[in-house]
Amino acid sequence: MTVTLDQPLPLPCGATLKNRLGKSAMSETLGTPGNRVTPRLVRLYREWARGGTGLLVTGNVMVDRRAIGEPCNVVLENNRDKRLLERWALAGREQNTHIWMQLNHPGKQAPKALNRGAVAPSAVPFSDPKLGRFFHLPRALTQPEIADIVRRFGESAALARDAGFTGVQIHGAHGYLVSQFLSPLSNQREDEYGGNAENRRRFVLEVYDAIRARVGDDFPVSIKLNSADFQQGGFEEGESLQVVEALARQGMDLIEISGGTYESPRMAGQGVKESTRRREAYFLDYAEQVRQRVTVPLMVTGGFRTLEGMNSALADGATDMVGLARPLVVEPDLSRRLLDGRARDCRVKPIRTGVRMVDEAAMMEVSWYTLQLGRIARGKAPLPDAGGLSSLLKVAGVVGWRRLRMGRLRA
């Protein structure tokens, strides 16, 4: 039987997603400078839930207030924001939608402006010195510190479940801490957490086990995983497939496939071949390899732009879910219109400032979309035709002010 976008997707844990469209995580940076939940997140996720998407995955929620990835990330360590967390989850559950909290630790991708220091599997800096100057040289984690971070993932997952979120996702991609443990480029440890592929995946398996122990067997647990880092000497497809098989054996409910890091941002479309763009999904070839090895449900994110491309990916069996991110910023109700036949494609287009160096940086487009997320969160419509340079300058001003306030809070 041909799979279509409107069909439900049953998960191994017993939960069911109402359709095959998922909102992939984007870092909203809509918390307070003190990393608390705000009503803006409630408003944003209510808008998406009403837009018809079956699964909403939140942006980075950090498990440790000492390790922040972006200004105004939410940190979930305790119940200080329980009332707003419950409102956020309730808004995301409207119309039988699933809302899963993405849990993350940045590792060495912790900016100097926001953090007093950084930790990582090993004391390995960024290979690009221009990028590295914005980040601390990381300190290698001790084994007791690793155990504490594993515990924190489990604690945050339990808090999310208790607040009404219907699942969690481990951020194991894009060069953050879980991804750093998996990569031989950033993990040069010689203990049980490094030295070979089996040891490098020990951390992510312990994180999964800690979460499962706290949330039970009937609660969806997912992971966002790199197909590869696209860096010489880094995490490659062969090892990624081994991680997928290990996670499937442990009982993972959904694997979202992505790729790249801050230094090689394939998740943003940088360096993607034209033939891949025409097929739309950046990581579909890798997903086809995964499907030959495991039966765990898959979500492929990155590059989907037309209804035809989405249906083709589902019909081929390479993916079970179509992951959308930027299209749902420009058009929050796109899923509903795709499902009822009123939309055949989306309005996403390249954002340009006219400054080549800026236009080649993936973070420029992130800034543009961050501005649109803020508009939706304030109850305003997105501006799909907003200029790239003006948006970048606005976001730079806001981020600078937030960093200043966060710095004062941490002084």
UniProtKB/TrEMBL annotation:
Alphabetically ordered keywords of this record: Flavoprotein, Oxidoreductase
GO molecular function: FMN binding; oxidoreductase activity
Domain NADH:flavin oxidoreductase/NADH oxidase N-terminal stretches: 15-343
The keyword Flavoprotein is assigned to this record: yes
UniProt cross-references to InterPro entries, sorted A to Z: Aldolase_TIM, NADH_flavin_oxidoreductase, OxRdtase_FMN_N
Protein species of origin: Alcanivorax dieselolei (strain DSM 16502 / CGMCC 1.3690 / MCCC 1A00001 / B-5) (Alloalcanivorax dieselolei)
Residues spanning the signal sequence: none
Protein name: NADH:flavin oxidoreductase/NADH Oxidase, putative
Superkingdom of origin: Bacteria
CDD domains from the UniProt entry: OYE_like_2_FMN
